[in-house]
Prior knowledge:
By secondary structure, this protein is an all-alpha fold. The protein has helices at about 10-35, 45-65, 70-75, 80-110, 120-125, 130-145, 145-175, 180-195, 200-220, 220-240. It has ten helices and no strands.
Amino acid sequence: METIKDKNTIFLTDWFKIWALAGIIFIVFLGLYTWNNKHSIHSELVYLIQGSVFLAAAYLALLKAGVNIKAAISDVDITDDIKLVFKYFLVYLLLGLAILLLITIAWILLIKTNIFTSDDFYRHMKNPLDRISEQNYLHDVIMKSSFKFAVYSFSAYILIPIEEEIFFRRLLFVSLRKKMAFLPSLLISSLFFALLHGAGAGFALATGLFLGWVYEKKQKLSVNIMIHGIVNFSVDVIRQVI
Length: 242
């Protein structure tokens, strides 16, 4: 069986160049879109362009690495992959609940011992206005426009998971694994993945660590992509509920 280190990939310098170029193109678009049209960054068009630009860059990176994309797609066993997705997403949920429980217990103890207060908690949370903006956008998309919801869903749950898994697991993680052991490769690739998510870096780091572990274990990018898409969907559902 092919190991992680046997997989074709690109040099780390090439990875940075390709990812940075895609980032610059997206940032230019985002700046023009929000400045000229006074639009919020929370837009289905923004997510669609983000996914499309980075997916195109990921495709070029795979070609540069010499990956046979058609062969990789034909090797996908959808029935087996779906079983693995449900299995590992359940593991992800259980781990998430365990971590949340530990954090909650620790925070309660800190508050009771007056080391922190509830005000400290809210100060460390993501900007409430940003959160409200995201919630309002998602609510409008879901309730008022089936077309916008379809575009958003395609972007957030399909396009973006595909390009991020290619960039951060298939290319960056594999490139690092050719040079170092599993744990440092996992940590470094997950840190870069977390930085991409700004205020959600903590959650993204934990998710990146889990997805990197799954990829090392099963070496099935299709499984990673589906788990990633389900995670994104679950986060949006939680945002609407809480």
